[in-house]
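Hey, I'm writing a tutorial for new members on how sequence and structure tokens pair up, and I'd like a real worked example in the thread rather than a made-up one. If someone can provide the structure for the chain below, I'll link this post from the tutorial.
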Amino acid sequence: MPHLLQQLLQENPRETLWIAEENSKALLQAGFRFDGDLITNRWDIAHFADGRCHHSFFSDFRFAELERRYRRIVFPVSKEKAIVHHVINSTPEVLGAGGELALLGGKQSGIKTYAAKAAARLGGDKNLVKHGLEYSCQVVFHESDGQRLDDQDYTRLRPLDALGGLYSKPGLFGWNKIDRGSALLADRFAEHLPPPGANVVDLGCGYGYLSAELARHGTFHFTATDNNAAALLACERNFREREITGVVTPSDAGRELGANIADLLICNPPFHQGFQVEGDLTDRFLENAARLLRPGGTALFVVNEFIPLARKAEPLFTDIQPLERRDGFSTFRLCR
């Protein structure tokens, strides 16, 4: 896909908005420079785009915040259907009449279905073209009278009974459920509490479930961080609603946070990004956890049981204690 994406972005870049989700990272990592504007919901992509694009925006695809309209949108389709539907629904707000939406993706990405939906929504032809194992679709926007796609009310934060009243929204992985691994880790909190007022880092916070659960046990100061803009919005809301003391800030696996700031670190690291399994994610979370912990600090991790966390953590921590293995997950206590 990077070659096809690069080709599309080189066509009239000054009039193009690049919607960059997980499938755009490889091209930016390779040093590609883009003379147009980029919007992304991922902090790591925003970091790579800094200085490589005319203007980059980090947000939960809030297109109303953009400073202008464009003649073209280029969008490698996301794994999350609600995001793709939200982008297609929002296209009339971003393009002028006669503007073009270019979608691209592999066979398993749903690109053919999205091409048909975009054509119906925008009143144009889908113009689907195969490029080896990839497809592109370029739809000219004629009118926005087509029926809106079901984007699960994408922009709205909402409290969910399934989450015990915590706020969440589409665009966040596992947005409408409590992750089994996180629940397993939260069950161990009472056994490993720091002293009152301790500094806690929630690394990869999502909508803030682990912080909310730990806050039930005492008063601590939290630093919650995530790579995903939707997660940050939801976590901020939950901190306000639950009166949790702390800050919510973007980072790429904690890389931007200062060293030696945490008495306790809690983490359920992702092991995938988008359509790919990203093998070094656990390593990056562990490396940053070790850097963020103060001497004598403790990290509580939960991972899928097939991830060899103890082996990966051995060079970084002086004490590695397995806690529990259940329901396909393993929990660990790691100390500096």
